[in-house]
Each structure stands twice: as structure tokens, then as C-alpha cells.
Amino acid sequence: MSEKNDHIIGIVGGMGSYATVDLFKRIIDAAPTKKDWEKPHVIIDNFSTVPSRVRAVLYNEQKDKVVECLASSVRNLMNCGADRIIVGCHTAHIFLPDAIKLVDGAEGCVINIIEAAVRLCVSKGYDKVRLLATEGTVETGIYTDAFSGTKIEIINPDEKGLVDIRTIIEDVKQNLIGKATRELFRSLACADENPVLLGCSELPVIYGNCREAGIVFENEVIDPFQIVIEELVAPPEGGNT
């Protein structure tokens, strides 16, 4: 039998639901196992009724409710035994520090995907990284701030880019990905030669869809969730797969 990590992985999901399905599948696909019973133990809280994180940022709507919902989901997952928790929404990470404060022991369980992205980009020696993200994520500067201690410049989307990203995200959320969605995403991702950072949980879904359709991306595409997934499913040190 292959050795594997015995962590119980929790996903704070539902933001959106198709992105959560994609995240779960990628965790299972990435696990270096030979038998079904060796796959990771994953618990999902598909909390789709969490208020809009973007509107909470842009219009100060239901901020406290967003924090309470995130804290509740983390608490539920921990009560079910999860000891490594992924929050399946980039914009939600803006509220994550406040949510963690409301849950005993959460600080040691919840993984910050934004910090994971910074670690990777620094290790790659990038000079510039182009961010594709929602208005809420861009408005708060959460990625710009995270990279401020490095020599890497974050290039945020322009106004048209934000509109196009929102169109793509809504297509993914409604499971309406088509040729136009793929072409729009590729035009954004390949706008220049800089590495592209997928700063929204719906964007890896369309990226995977594009690759399945045979679309080629010349520049590197960085998915913070994939970074964390690979860390989570790696066999324990000294283990064999």
C-alpha cells in the first residue's frame, strides 16, 4: 500500500459551487495513490449562502455576516476532524483573519492560499506577475500587499479586464462555459509574456476547460489552489508512492 499523508482536508466551499467541485476533484486527482481507499479524506462544507464577498468589499454589505459564515464553516469542519482547511474563495481571504479569531485552534488549521502563491513566485524568481481577480480582491490590494515584501511587481487588471473577468466568472458559476468564454479567458491570460496568477476560484475551472479543449498557453499560469493541493497530498517525508 502507498504511504500518504493522514491529514483530513476540509474545504470551505460554495463560493462558488462548481469551483468547489473542481477543487475536490483536483485533490483526488493529485493524490499519488494506487487504490481508492488510499485517497485523501476530504470534508466539504458547500456553504453557498455566504453573502457576496465582493459586495462586502465594494459596498460594505454584510461584512460581519461574511465573517460569521466563514468562522461557522471552519468550526464545522474542525468539529468533523479536519486539520487542514482550504477556503475556496480568494476574496474571502480578506475576511479570513477576523474569522479565524472566532474559532479556537483555527490559526493552525486554515491554509492561506495567497501566502502559498507568494512563496511559489518568489522561488521562481519572477520580476512581474499579472493578476486576474475580482473587483473586490483588486480593490483591497490583498495580493499587492502580500507581495510588498518581495521584489515582484503585481500587475492588476484594468477596467475592461475586470469586466471581462466578471463575465468569465459568471459563466463558470452558471456552468455556461462555451467557446466565447474560453477565447475571452485566453485573451486575458495571454495578453503579455508575464506569468499569470489566477486570483479567483472560478478561473482554474475555465483554465482546465481550455486545456481540455486543446488551447495552448504560452506564458506560465499560476494557480494558488494547485500549489496547496500538491503540498497537501504529498506523501510524508521518507514515504514511498
Structure characterization notes:
The longest helix has 17 residues, at 63-79. Helix content is 47%, strand content 13%. The mean pLDDT is 92. The protein has two domains: 8-112 and 227-233, Rossmann fold (3-Layer(aba) Sandwich), CATH 3.40.50; 113-223, Rossmann fold (3-Layer(aba) Sandwich), CATH 3.40.50.1860. With 241 residues, it is α/β, with parallel strands linked by helices.
For the biggest sheet, the summary is: 4 strands, parallel
Task: Tell me the strand order in the biggest sheet.
Answer: 2-1-3-4
Overall pLDDT confidence:
92
> Please, what is the oligomeric state?
single chain
The SS-based structural class is alpha/beta
What is the name of the CATH class of the largest domain? Alpha Beta
Second-tier CATH architecture of the largest domain: 3-Layer(aba) Sandwich
Could you give the order of the helices and strands? EHEHHEHEHEHHEHHEHEH
Task: Please give the number of β-strands.
Answer: 8
- The value of Rg in angstroms is 18 Å
Number of helices: 11
Low-pLDDT windows of residues: none
Question: Which range best describes the helical content: under 10%, 10-25%, 25-40%, 40-55%, 55-70% or over 70%?
Answer: 40-55%
Distance between the termini: 8 Å
Whole-number tally of structural domains: 2
The name of the CATH topology of the largest domain is Rossmann fold
Shape: globular
Share of β-strand residues: 5-15%
List the helices and strands and how they pair.
Blueprint: E1 8-13, H1 17-30, E2 41-46, H2 53-59, H3 63-79, E3 84-87, H4 96-101, E4 110-111, H5 113-124, E5 128-132, H6 135-140, H7 142-146, E6 153-155, H8 159-173, H9 179-189, E7 196-198, H10 203-212, E8 221-222, H11 224-233
